[in-house]
Amino acid sequence: MTLKKAFAFFILLALSFLPNASSATGFEEPKVEYSADSYFEAEGMTMKSMVFHAPGKERRDMEGMVMIIRRDKKVVWQLMPDMRKYMENPIEKADRKSDDLSDYKVVQTVIGPDTIEGLKTTKYKVVMTDKKGNRQTGLMWATKDGIMVRLEAEGEHDGKKMKMKNYLRNVKIAKQDPKLFEIPAGYTSMGSVMDMFRGAQEDARKAQEDADRKAKEAEAKRAKEEAARKKAKEERDYTASERDYTSGERDYTSSPRQKTSTTTGSAPSSTDAAKDTAKKLWKLFGK
After folding, report:
1. For residues 154 and 41, what is the distance between their CA atoms, to the nearest angstrom?
2. pLDDT (tens digit, 9 = 90+) per residue, 91-121?
3. For the chain, which terminal residue's Cβ has fewer other Cβ atoms within 10 angstroms, N or C?
């Protein structure tokens, strides 16, 4: 279990998020209905939410999300107001995790009375130790009605240390509107977190299959284009070879005529023949 997860369990324990958290620490669930501003600080980060509580019910309004914990129904609803959708998860599933509160030894000590945010509280020291010896320690301030007004915790997990703080402001003890703890009208179910996880896995599988299909199609297209280019080149090479052969054949055919013309010279004209004949007659009869 990571350090953040260990502290998350400590927070859940202290704020009674889990149905058995109050009995594990000796604290009872708040007996009164109230609302308050809740602040969580850790690692330089501050997160604000609004908390509404009634026996067996709790609601936390955070940025972009609302969480309704119905211990009386043993379910947790996670609302997404922007989408007007919600997810539902049984609380029992969280209790059956391997890293549940049964993995911790919890020791609490009363320090004494104290006043926090104008409220009379009792200050407690709580020490949680898991089976590996990792310890988280904290100071808690709770009213007599069980409202956890403040928590300051620090701990070490696998050699890493962390400090955190959770506190309430503007605590108003008053009856809460029952509608706060119900799924608003018009919201549609997205299933559970596991359904969403399985859906994401299925989407990822389909996306991978689609990517593989497109890759195969692209490879087949490249192979086809390469075959077409190879065939075109072979046809060009064959045509060029055929032209070279025809040209060579013409050269071979014209060579004998050119050779004969060069060796024998041009045929004598009729004028030259007549002159030659006249010369022969003069030599024979002219004397």
Report:
1. 12
2. 865 444 444 556 678 788 999 999 998 999 9
3. C
Q: Using CA atoms, how far apart are residues 229 and 65, in angstroms rounded to an integer? A: 58
- Termini Cα distance of the chain: 145
pLDDT digits over 140-181, tens only? 899 999 899 998 988 765 667 778 888 999 999 999 999 999
Report d(CA 113, CA 126) in Å as an integer.
15
Residues 16 and 19: their CA atoms lie apart, in Å, by 7
Sheet holding 188-189, edge to edge: 104-116, 119-130, 135-142, 148-157, 160-173, 34-42, 45-54, 57-62, 65-70, 75-80, 85-90, 188-189
128: exposed, middle or buried (Cβ count in 10 Å: 0-12, 13-18, 19+): buried
3-state helix, strand, coil in the chain (%, to 5): 40, 35, 25
H or E segment at 110? strand 104-116
Q: From CA 124, how far away is CA 111, in angstroms rounded?
A: 5
Tell me what percent of the residues of the chain surpass a pLDDT of 70: 65
Which structure tokens are listed for 168? 């309430």
